[in-house]
Structures are given as C-alpha cells and as structure tokens.
Design brief:
With 447 residues, the protein is an alpha/beta fold. It is 35% helix and 23% strand. The mean pLDDT is 94.
Length: 447
C-alpha cells in the first residue's frame, strides 16, 4: 500500500494523518478549500503534551490532483459520507482499499452497497482531540485505533494497514469482530455525546449523579437491544463497561459538544437517531434514544432562514420564525381565502394579526415593517394598520405560493385603499418603535 489518501484533517483525520505523514512521504490529504488553504500555507500542525509537530503533506480539494491511492482513510463526519464517496470515485480501482474511522455502525455497509465490492476495512478511533483552527489540531488524550475485516479474518491488507499505523507510532489493535467493536463504541457515543450537550458540561457531570447513572443504563440497554436485533450480541454488563471506560476520561467534552459549540452540524442522526430508526423498524422500544435525538436537534439546529421561512424580529421579546406548515397550523380565524376580499387574486393567506399574536411585542411597539428577502423592498405600516389590513399570502391550491406570483410569502393589504402595501418575496417582518424603512415611492400609490 504505497500511496495513502487521508480524507479530511479534522480532529481525528488530522491527528492520525499527520502522524502517518510524519513517518511516510506517500501520505496525501483531500481537504475542503478553507482547510486546504491553511495547510498549504502553514502545514498541518498537531499540538499535544506528548509532543507538537508540523507536517507539509501534498494536499488538494480534488483527488485527481494527487497520486492515485492504494489506501483511502475516511475520517469525515458520517453525514458527509455520500459527498465524499462521489469525490473519491474517480480515483478508485479494483484494488483500492477504504479504511473507515467514523462514528456510527452503518458506514461500511453503505460503502459496499455503493461500490458493489469488498473494498472496506472497518476501523474505530479512540482519541480526544479537537480543531483549534483550520490545519491545527489540539490533542489531549488517547490516540489509538482498532481495525478489522468485516468477515473477521486477518487478511494481508489488514496486516499491511496495521503495519502502517505501527510504523507511525500509532497503537493499532486488530479485532476479529469489528462490528461488535463499533457497536460497543456506539453505546458510549449514544450516552455521552448527547448528554454533554444537554448538560452543557463535561462527562464528569453526568457520571457524578446517581439519577443520571440509572438513565445511562437505560440508554445503553436500548442500544444493546437494537444491536441484538441486527445480530450483534453485546455483553449483558455493557452499561457498566461504558461507565468504567468513561471514568478514565471524565474531564473531557465530546465531539458532539465541540461541534455544537463551533456551530457545526452534529452526528445525532447516525448515533441515537440510527438506534431509534432501527428500533422502529423491528418494533424495539427506544424512548430515551428518541428523546435524545429530538432534544439534540432542538438544541443544536440553528434558526431556519432563507427561502420558505419568514422571521418576526425587532421590538419583540423573542424573535420567531415560521415556515408554511407553521403558518397553516395557526388558528382558522386568522386564515383567509384572499379571493373573498381581492377577487382578482387567488391564494390562501394568514392575517398579519395572527402572526403578531405569537411573539410578545415590545411595550412601546407601534409600527411593523415588512421586508423582501433581497433587502430591496420594504413597507412600513402602523401596528394598527398591519393588524387590521395586512395579509401574508403563503399557499396556492395547497402548494407553496409560487415565486412567479411573489411567493413564497407575499404581503397584500386589502382594504387599506391608497395606503396599500404590496411586498413580494417577504422574508422578514420587523416590529419597531417608531417608523421603520419604507421603499415605496409614495404611500399614495395605488396597488
């Protein structure tokens, strides 16, 4: 395995890839543009109490610009897998081997299904590190891997990969049941990744409360039950093992915690979400994993913005966003067939009054400014005018209001007469104290 391609240089791939590159000149990196620019300019740096160093490996954002690899090591997040497989497909041959160092338990099956051949060696990374900056990885604890063939045998390619890691000074354990090893780590991930986000603290906070220990046992119990259903039996004392393993690293945060704090997506769908999905398929109750999945998504997903979302902000206690489904769920008394008041138009609308009933308005709020998504147009009405006459069109024949007609949200003000306001492509409703911006050439202009 002469040529090695590391895909990604994050907290996992950056650490292991840098060590491999330090020992082997034939290691190259496939990187995203921001990380690529940093590595090309400053190299890839590992900062660790065990010794810091910098390497300057070949790197590119297109694998065709690098030596054709014999071994590809995937260390990207599970949600990026499909995109990465599309990227590397042009450089794959019938002999290319792919080693996975990713969370979750389905990566290997997805790769085999995609390429229809036995090209995968499973891997598990044991490390605590995080991205300090693009191309800079801070390493704190551990730094080993376990690898194994999916069928459990010790193949020549497996032994060759193990030698590469050992030559780089990376402890590498061979496992004859890599699926079980991955499910064992899944038990840990499904407990402490979401819990550290929920408690906004290190794993020690969860370990130090008897009530939480009971919850940990229940979470692991659900994972063990699902694993058994897919024919991966785990030890009956798996929860005790998870707690015991964690006692050695009780001062750490988790990768999900670090991703959340950095504003990156989390892997919840491939951890607790995957357990819950398989549980539903086989009729295995997973109430805690269902709960953890829902809560983590609620905590970590950013407020939606952009096409198909309208946001009310400004002089309100708390901004609020609506999509079409949320608007349609508002009380029927606020819903309106626009043709009943504007015979020349078709569509379903929500009275602005109904939208403004949701957020708590500022004490002295007295105007409402409706802005188009491109920022070019706005109309300012008094609060009373907006409540009495404003309508936001959002559906036509049960479908999103088309952009060709000013959607997905369009302001009309039937009954306002010469003061009518009509804004297409509405994305924001700003509540103000005093007059807001108004781009209408004249409020006397008829609609």
């Amino acid at each position: 395995m002469k040529q090695i391609l590391m895909v990604g240089a994050g907290s996992v791939g950056g650490f292991f890839g840098a060590h491999l590159a330090q020992a082997n000149p034939n290691v190259s990196f496939l990187l995203r543009p921001k990380t690529l620019a940093a590595v090309k300019q400053n190299g890839l740096t590992i900062r660790s109490a065990q010794g810091s160093f910098t390497v300057h490996p070949p790197a590119a954002s297109d694998p065709r610009d690098l030596p054709k690899p014999n071994l590809i090591i995937l260390s990207v997040k599970a949600y990026d897998l499909d995109e990465v497989l599309t990227q590397i497909e042009p450089v794959l041959t019938d002999q290319t081997v792919i080693l996975t160092l990713q969370n979750g338990v389905e990566t290997e099956d997805r790769i085999v299904a995609r390429f229809q051949r036995d090209c995968v060696v499973g891997g598990i990374a044991f490390i605590y590190s995080r991205i300090a900056a693009p191309g800079v990885i801070d390493h704190y604890k551990k730094g080993s891997v376990a690898i194994g063939e999916m069928m459990g045998h010790q193949s020549p390619r497996l032994l060759a990969i193990a030698d590469l890691f050992k030559q780089a000074g990376i402890p590498c354990q061979l496992t004859d049941d890599v699926r079980r090893s991955k499910w064992e780590k899944m038990c840990w991930n499904c407990v402490f990744n979401p819990l550290t986000v929920m408690i906004d603290d290190k794993v020690a906070k969860a370990l130090d409360h008897p009530e939480m220990l009971r919850v940990i046992h229940q979470i692991v119990g659900e994972v063990v039950a699902v694993a058994a259903t897919v024919k991966v039996p785990l030890a009956p004392d798996m929860a005790d093992k998870v707690v015991r393993w964690t006692s050695e690293i009780r001062d750490i945060h988790t990768s999900m915690y670090d991703d959340w704090k950095a504003g990156r997506p989390t892997e919840i769908d491939f951890l607790n979400g995957y357990v819950a999905k398989v549980g539903r398929e086989f009729g295995i109750p997973t109430p805690l994993n269902d709960l953890l999945t829902a809560v983590i998504k609620t905590i970590t997903e950013r407020d939606r913005t952009g096409l198909g979302v309208v946001r009310i902000d400004g002089a309100v206690v708390q901004p609020v966003s609506f999509d079409r489904a949320a608007i349609a769920s508002l009380p029927a008394e606020h819903q309106l067939d626009i043709s009943t008041v504007m015979p020349s138009m078709k569509g379903t609308g929500i009275r602005i009054r109904g939208l403004l009933d949701v957020p708590a308005l500022g004490i002295k709020a007295d105007h409402v400014t409706v802005h188009s998504g491109d920022g070019k147009y706005s109309a300012c009405l008094t609060l009373d005018q907006a409540k009495a006459f404003g309508v936001l069109l959002y559906e036509l024949d049960g479908e999103p209001f088309p952009e060709s007609k000013g959607g997905p949200f369009r302001l009309v003000t039937p009954g306002l007469g010469d003061l009518c306001a009509n804004v297409k492509g509405v994305a924001r409703i700003e509540v103000t104290i005093g007059m807001g911006t108004d781009t209408r050439p004249s409020v006397k202009t008829n609609c």
